[in-house]
User: Fold these one by one.
Assistant:
Number 1:
Amino acid sequence: MAIIVNLDVVLAKNKMRSNDLAKLIGITEQNLSILKTGKAKAIKLTTLNSICKHLNCQPGDLLEFKED
């Protein structure tokens, strides 16, 4: 099983760059990149809330579960 992060897709739909989102939600570009590439082991709910707020999306738009 794997959790797929679709942050890059949602960013593209909103025509927003990663560095702009990182500044808006108050995390480093490196940490946003780790999240975007699916290398993160966890995500704070406050960070997820802030991403959804700024990208006008639902958590399910960002995270997807797939069987291996």
Number 2:
Amino acid sequence: MTEQNLPRCACGCGAEPEGGTKRIIFACAGAAKAGQLSNEAAVQLTEEGYGKIACTASLAVGTPSIMKKVEAADEVVVIDGCPVGCARQIAEKAGITPDQEIVVTDLGIEKGGSLDLSEEDVETIVSAAWEGKGRSETEKGRRPSGGCGCGGGCGGE
């Protein structure tokens, strides 16, 4: 792993995420704009150190290496483009209940057929993940908002 690929805390507290929450991110990566935005947001979240993107198709076929990564993760985050929830359904069929599911169209972004992705839409999705908007009410009560888990005393904000 190169220095550039090391996960970094993006909360601004300056601490490294070592020992923090290990998240694995599955995006639907569907053919419509919302699906492609979900994938782009997962890439950005990986770059920001929030978690690591993983192959949803690999999860669908039960690749042993992906199942090991899921077992090693503290949280599973799913980003779906629309309410069909393909990534969530794939996770559930693999016996995984996501800790957080973000649905792009629930954030006011249209599914659409255009593949023109805007930075603003990607940022909306990324912010929703950091803010924990895809958590159930039970999960929101157990974890701090954002929950970067950096250990820097920032409270994940």
Number 3:
Amino acid sequence: MLLRLAAERRVLFVGGKGGVGKTSVASAVALERARDGGRVLVVSTDPAHNLGHLWDRPLGDEPTTVVAVADGARAGGGAARVDGRGGGVDAVEIDPARTVETHLAGVRSTMLRLLPERLHGQVEQHLAFAREAPGTYESAILDRLAECVEAGLDAYDLVVVDTAPTGHTLRLLALPAQLTSWTETLLASRDRAERFGAAVRGLGGRRAADVDVDAELRRVLVRRRRRFATLRDVVGDPGRTSFVIVGVAEPMPVAESLALDAELASLGVDVSAVVVNRRSPADAGELLAQRRRAEDQQLRVLRAGLEAGSGARAGGGPDVVELPLLAGDLVGEPGVAAIGAAIRAAG
């Protein structure tokens, strides 16, 4: 199920409650897709950043190759690439501090270039407040994510987004539509101002430099609107994008998974699968057998909730995929591969 999704979609978001194994599942899906010959970009938007810890290597804000799969060395007998190149996984941990600084530096450069010098002091003051203002972090992260998805669609077969815990992710997914609408409002205001400017120019009262400023402001706004609109369209297109919810069979994660499924449905985001991670074995002692029985009860709650929420969906509710509790310290490529093998075995 998960590997079929990885082969059919261009973008997979992987999210859920903190500590349930989102990063492990996201990385394992990426690795298996790479072993089938795909080029995959994994992007972490989680400020906690477990991606580098999982792959046991430092990662940063630019793509770093964590796995290169030589052509012909794929697992599962995947078809050879037409271009003869092997698959691989590149990874990015979006750096919140760098992203905010880069974002504000870009805004500062644009504003100082476009506004008269007498207003530069106010610009600096505004940006100092903006650095700590609510929403600055989310806006900057969204800008960087939009860049990664846009570049990823050109250069990779699949982009896997390893998201922050639920609340952050929902705000992030709602932002593209909100910011697209906000930018369109700004553009409409610019259009009205430009029409007024044209009328003034007709009377000989406006300088050519002012016209250049208007044109550049418009280009900045159009570029920003295009980027957010692209991300909004990609996120809302079930043919290209799906969301995979990861949880464990315990009361709070199950409740949060059902709430996340409902919220994503209200945002128009396709949820194709819910992964129930770390299922206890039934035949490894009484303690784990008891846990298994308790998990079975939570699994029934999860399936009933998903079925109840599937009525409004044309294609029904998401599939449930169970992954077993695995032994050992699952880090580095061998650890990710062990999770990938479990995903492949789950079908």
Number 4:
Amino acid sequence: MKRVLTFFGAPGVMLARTVRAGAREGIPWRETLAQVHELGGRSVWLVMSGMAFFGAVLVMIANAQAKKLIGNVAVLGPAYFEMLVRELGPAVSALLTASRAGASHSAELATMSVNEQVEALEMSAGDPYADLVAPRLVAGVVGVPLLSVLGTVAATASAVLVASVALDIDGRAFMDARYVDGWDLLVGGLKVLGCGLYIPLAAAVAGLNARGGAEAVGEATTEGVVAASLGCLLIDLTVSLAFQFVRL
């Protein structure tokens, strides 16, 4: 029970302290730009290549199922594109980002904690929430949505390529946006914004609570990745259920 309360409560407390510290101390924008590069720039190839493989596999599975039921996978193209924009693009892109950026943030902050650099920052009148967490929070809110867009483009391109080359059908069917509307974009947008907010918070909780030596850094890194990934899945499920409840 304590672990459940910590899982849900600690990121909320971290968010409140970071917002309050950022409003009081200001946000170091040079560090924020560095964190945007760390989260977005260094994750872009993982997200795009992972989503490209994901899109290709999905088309192969859809083709196998279409042969059994309707005989033509091209008719599934518009539904495939809507599912990619609304559900799979945001969720899978966020998970890939959580695996790399979550590990990076957790390890960096845990190393600073065990080396007492965080205490040194506080003794020099610095604020760890404003100086360390707030830049990562801004980077997550900006970077995860951009990575989701690029990942969705990569998955769409790979689907078109596989359909055209390997399945010998018109791949343009998998770029058909006739079923995509404003609600789909809203659902996808809420998911990536929620994940962009949660990934740095989960990593910061794990990293700043690390105590001990090198072993603590490893444990904090694992804890940060697990928490960030589970949080993204919960956000995906919560947003999907909420909009399903109102039948949108």
